Amino acid sequence: MNRRSLLAACLGVALVPAAAYSWVSSAAADDETIEVPLGLPPVFWPDDNPYTAEKAELGKLLFFDKRLSSDNSVACASCHDPSKAFGDGAANSRGIGGQRGGRSAPTVINRAYSTLQFWDGRAPTLEEQAKGPIANPIEMTIDKATDLAHSNVIKRLKGVPGYVARFKKVFGTEDFTLDQATQAIATFERTVLSGNSPWDRYQAGDNKAMTPAQVRGMDVFFKKAACDSCHLGFNFTDGSYENVGIGMDRAQPDLGRYLVSHKEEDKGAFKTPTLREVEHTAPYMHDGSLKTLEEVVEHYDKGGIKNPQLNQRIKPLHLSAGEKKDLVEFLKALSGQGWQQVTPPREFPR
Ligand code: HEC
Ligand code: HEC
Fold first, then answer.
1. How confident is the model at residue 28, as a pLDDT?
2. From the alpha carbon of 95, which atom of ligand 1 is closest?
3. How far apart are CA 97 and CA 312, in angstroms?
4. Residue to mutate, 285, 290, 314, 329, ligand 2, most ligand atoms under 8 Å from C-beta
5. Is 139 a catalytic residue?
6. 207 and 115 belong to one structural domain
7. Which neighbouring-strand residues pair with 290?
8. Which atom of ligand 1 is nearest to the CA of 75?
9. Which numbered atom of ligand 2 lies nearest the CA of 241?
10. Cβ neighbour number for residue 192 with a 10 Å cutoff
11. Cα separation of the two ends of the chain
């Protein structure tokens, strides 16, 4: 099997036609990797967690398996649903026992290109991030202590011969650990990509790839509105934490990055999210408070929500009605391919 069909086999489906992809590989010739859609750089695989197709397949099973929660009711995919572009379409995600947390579930798409995870960047890697929800009492566990939640999940998985066999194959041991489980999950997540959008094809020289409105909206995005002072580069984010005012008009606002850094200027700052697939990930912002892309554009046009830490680049834009429409159309030109092939596993290890 070549790498392409390996990946296809691992994801259980046919990939988008080859012509849509440019083959890119930074890994040494004998290292396995995956191909990425047009417009994206190669996926970077950590030295201590290299890609293998079997590991990604195991990670996919774990990602979709409700047995990762104490009462078998919630999987990662419950809040990061492939049919909702790996978000959950809700302002607050519903976890174990129907409880709701305070933040909106970001998409898992293109997370391969960031190290820090969560709206406030509190997890240093995808591997570490995955440990969070498993031990979070409003997401996946009824156990009060983190260690207990983690050891209980591993105990449960070790009771499933199908998983024991798969872990043995991937990691060479039946006595697997939480670290190995989250390595597998992170490997799967790094295969969930979005590129080859109308924007990427336009960039690659296909002048017809975007509509005239999208081309006009591109100008508004990069010039008049300077959205790219934060949403920049191939993934439309510089990974910085910024205060654009969301939620700062509440009595007790979520202070975001400040809760991690304890720096005054980080109050109300959240991670600049990717804009790829944004057409499919409503509602928007860390609290899901903006329901449509039109509302997002209005938010920026009026200069955000005033507060002492508001980023200085957020100020009234005075866009015309036409410019606002075009800007929304441009955001839709960032919908691409590389994640639609992921469908829930037909069966789970027994
Ligand atoms: C109950 C819903 C829920 C479940 C279950 C859940 N998540 Fe999340 N996920 C969220 C929310 C909400 C956030 C944002 C939290 C924050 O930033 O504080 C998040 C954040 C993330 C992020 C960071 C994305 C970013 O842009 O920084 C990743 C990656 C992720 N989750 C993967 C997973 C994995 C893997 C699992 C299973 C082990 C999982 N999630 C289970 C709701 C959920
Ligand atoms: C100063 C940096 C900055 C600038 C300039 C900026 N953004 Fe943002 N953007 C952010 C941050 C930070 C968030 C997340 C804020 C939050 O959740 O509190 C965000 C969120 C968004 C979201 C929601 C994405 C999601 O998944 O929820 C969209 C859409 C968006 N911005 C579009 C734009 C557009 C269009 C412009 C130009 C008019 C723009 N941004 C200018 C930093 C910026």
1. 46
2. 1
3. 42
4. 285
5. yes
6. no
7. 284
8. 5
9. 12
10. 24
11. 27
Q: For CA atoms 312, 247, 109, 60, give the dihedral sign.
A: positive
Over the chain (350 residues), the average pLDDT of each successive run of 10 is 37 34 45 92 95 97 96 95 95 88 94 94 95 91 90 95 98 96 98 98 98 98 98 96 96 95 97 98 97 98 97 97 98 98 96
Mutate which of 69, 88, 131, 139 for ligand 1? The one with the most ligand atoms within 8 Å of its CB, which is 139
Give the CA diameter of the chain: 62
Is 188 near ligand 1, meaning CB less than 6 Å away? Answer: no
Parent domain of 217: 198-332
Give the Cα separation of 328 and 14 in Å (integer).
Answer: 31
Residue 43: burial class (beta carbons within 10 Å; 0-12, 13-18, 19+): buried
| Contact (Cβ atoms closer than 8 angstroms) between residue 64 and residue 76 | yes
- 180 plus 214 within the same structural domain: no
Beta bridge partners of 100: 94
Residues 34 and 172 in one domain: yes
Could you tell me if 156 and 213 lie in one domain? Answer: no
Alpha carbon nearest to ligand 1 atom 36, residue: 76
Q: What does DSSP say about strands 241-242 and 21-22: parallel, antiparallel, or unpaired?
A: unpaired
